[in-house]
């Protein structure tokens, strides 16, 4: 393939140099190069690893699982699915095998690091269910807090009567949040608070907020959280592989 005919549109050629210029102009060049370097590191590691290959039975089971999950059990439906993607069974099987190999690599380089990171930051991954009352006046916020302490009114009643936010229609219920994603003043205020406790008033964005902790949900290393941490650790790993390498782009 000539670098001058990297792509063609009708009878016009787009050279590799021009294609990269387009990517630079659109702001996508860095992402494009990042993907290339990531795949380079992965391919290098896979080529040097002899213990990651999945055996035939594992590949076949993975294909069965895929067909079940995607309602492709009937042979004719599966064949149509393959054709619609320009694939045959052999190519699909190779793709599944490569995916299993990649997953094993990912597990090998991230499992320990992801587990350790989770254990060190478990408090940040805890989830908390919060309700709030938001008012514009500090004195009113303090008075509402006093009423709650004296059991003169319920949190739900005061939220409906006084809160300025739309969640007043739901008794002030905000929803569930990961502790680590909350603003620092909120994290500090709810640290150690138990379900049923009301904290504040907190001055946030020029308003005054009372928060009630409805529920605390302990973090567990599973599901989406586990996947996210493993992805983060994998990105960190491949970037570290390039740390001491000279990377340059040359177009003749």
Can you describe this structure?
The chain has 252 residues and is α+β, with helices and mostly antiparallel strands. It has 3 domains: 3-47, no CATH class; 56-121 and 225-241, no CATH class; 127-217, Chitinase A, domain 3 (Roll). It contains 10 helices and 6 strands; from the N terminus they run ββααααααβααβαββα. It has a 4-stranded antiparallel beta sheet, sandwiched between helices. Strands 1-2 form a two-stranded antiparallel ribbon. Helix 3 (56-69) crosses helix 5 and helix 5 crosses helix 10 (223-241).
Topology at a glance:
Blueprint: E1 7-9, E2 12-14, H1 16-26, H2 29-47, H3 56-69, H4 75-84, H5 89-120, H6 122-125, E3 127-135, H7 138-149, H8 155-162, E4 173-178, H9 184-190, E5 198-204, E6 207-217, H10 223-241
Antiparallel strand pairs: 1-2, 3-4, 3-6, 5-6
Helix pairs in contact: 3-5, 5-10
**DSSP summary: helix tally:** 10
CATH C-level category of the largest domain: Alpha Beta
The CATH architecture name of the largest domain reads Roll
The total of beta strands comes to: 6
**Number of structural units classed as domains:** 3
- Taking pLDDT < 50 over at least 5 consecutive residues as the criterion, the unreliable ranges are none
As a whole number of angstroms, the C-alpha radius of gyration is 27 Å
Percentage of residues assigned to helices: 40-55%
Strand order of the largest sheet: 4-3-6-5
The major β-sheet equals:
4 strands, antiparallel
Mean pLDDT, to the nearest integer, reads 88
């Amino acid at each position: 393939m000539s670098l001058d005919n990297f792509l063609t549109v009708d009878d016009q050629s787009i050279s590799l140099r021009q294609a990269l210029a387009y990517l630079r102009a659109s702001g996508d060049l860095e992402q494009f190069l990042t993907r290339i370097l990531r795949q380079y590191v992965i391919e290098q590691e896979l080529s040097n690893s002899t213990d990651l290959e999945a055996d035939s039975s594992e590949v076949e089971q993975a294909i069965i699982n895929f067909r079940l999950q995607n309602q492709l059990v009937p042979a004719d439906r599966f064949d149509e699915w393959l054709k619609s993607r320009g694939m045959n069974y052999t190519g699909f099987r190779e793709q599944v095998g490569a995916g299993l190999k990649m997953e094993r690599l990912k597990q090998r380089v991230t499992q320990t690091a992801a587990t350790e990171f989770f254990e060190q930051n478990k408090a940040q991954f805890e989830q908390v269910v919060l309700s709030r009352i938001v008012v514009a006046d500090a004195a009113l916020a303090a008075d509402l807090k006093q009423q709650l302490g004296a059991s003169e009114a319920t949190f739900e009643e005061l939220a409906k009567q006084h809160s300025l936010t739309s969640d007043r229609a739901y008794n002030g219920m905000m929803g569930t949040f990961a502790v680590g994603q909350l603003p620092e003043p909120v994290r500090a205020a709810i640290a150690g608070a138990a379900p049923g406790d009301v904290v504040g008033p907190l001055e946030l964005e020029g308003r005054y907020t009372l928060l009630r902790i409805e529920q605390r949900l302990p973090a567990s290393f599973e599901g989406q959280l586990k996947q996210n941490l493993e992805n983060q650790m994998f990105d960190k790993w491949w970037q570290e592989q390039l740390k001491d390498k000279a990377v340059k782009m040359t177009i003749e």
